[in-house]
Amino acid sequence: MKPYQVPEALIDNFAQFASHYADISPAELKPMIRHLPIAFFKKGTVLVRQGDPVTQCFFILQGCARKYAVNEEGKEITSDFITEYQSIAILTSKDSPYFVTCLEDSVMIVGDLDQQSDEFDTYPVFAEITRRMMEESLGKMHDEYTAFISMGPEDRVRRLMQTRMDLFARVPQHQLASYIGITAESLSRIKRRLAESSLV
C-alpha cells in the first residue's frame, strides 16, 4: 500500500460522520483517524477477487466500488455498489464469492483482518464505531433486499432513483441494469417512461 497524503477535508468530514456512532467529538477523533491505514486506489483496481481468500476489509471515504460475481457462463452479476461512508466487507470464512473493483478513483480505510483486533486494542473507540456502523449497514441491506425482491423492475428503478440517484451518474448503465435484474435496454425504456410521466 503506497503512502497517501489524505486531504484534511476528508479527515474532517469522516470525523464528523464517525462521531455520531460513539460518545466522542470530531476533534478527539481526528488524531486517531490520521493513524489509520488510508490508501488511494485508481479506477479499475481490483480490491477483492472471486475465489481468493478474504484478508482485508475497506471503508470508502471517497469514491465508488462495485461488488459482483461471475457465473459459470461468464456473466457478471452485480450485487451492490459501495459509495462514501460505506464498508466493503465480505462476510465469509471461506474464499470470496465476489469480485470488488473500483469504479472511480477512490480513497479508503484499509483493514487487515489478521490485525484488526490489535488495531481495536490501540483505539477501542473504533471498535464501538465499527460495530454500530456494521449493525446499521446490515439492517439497511436487509431492508433493501427485502424491498427489491418484492418489486417489479419499474418499481426497483423508481426506488433506486429515490434512494441512490447518484448511481445513475456514477455507474455504467449495463452494470446498473445487472444490479436491478434487467437488461440495459429495459433500463433505458423504464427511465424514459418515468421521465415522460413526470412531465405530465
What does this structure look like?
The chain is of the alpha+beta class. It folds into two domains: 8-139, Jelly Rolls, CATH 2.60.120; 151-195. It has eight helices and eight strands; from the N terminus they run ααββββββββαααααα. The strands form two sheets. The protein has a four-stranded antiparallel beta sheet, with no helix packed on it. Strands 2-7-4-5 form a four-stranded antiparallel beta sheet. β4 and β5 form a beta hairpin. It is globular, with a radius of gyration of 18 Å.
List the helices and strands and how they pair.
Layout (H helix, E strand, L loop, with lengths): L7 H11 L7 H8 L4 E4 L4 E3 L7 E7 L2 E6 L5 E7 L4 E2 L10 E4 L3 E7 L3 H7 L1 H26 L3 H11 L3 H4 L2 H8 L3 H16 L1
Antiparallel strand pairs: 1-8, 2-7, 3-6, 3-8, 4-5, 4-7
Helix pairs in contact: 1-2, 3-4, 5-8, 7-8
- How far apart the termini lie comes to 53 Å
Return the CATH architecture of the largest domain: Sandwich
**What is the helix tally?**
8
Report the biggest beta sheet as strand number plus sense, adding barrel if it closes. Answer: 4 strands, antiparallel
Mean pLDDT: 90
Strand order of the largest sheet: 1-8-3-6
The beta-strand count equals: 8
Query: In CATH's first tier, which class of the largest domain applies?
Result: Mainly Beta
Shape: globular
User: Regions with pLDDT < 50 over 5+ consecutive residues?
Assistant: none
Describe what is shown at a glance:
This protein is of the alpha+beta class and 200 residues long. α1 crosses α2 (26-33). The protein has two domains: 8-139, Jelly Rolls (Sandwich); 151-195.
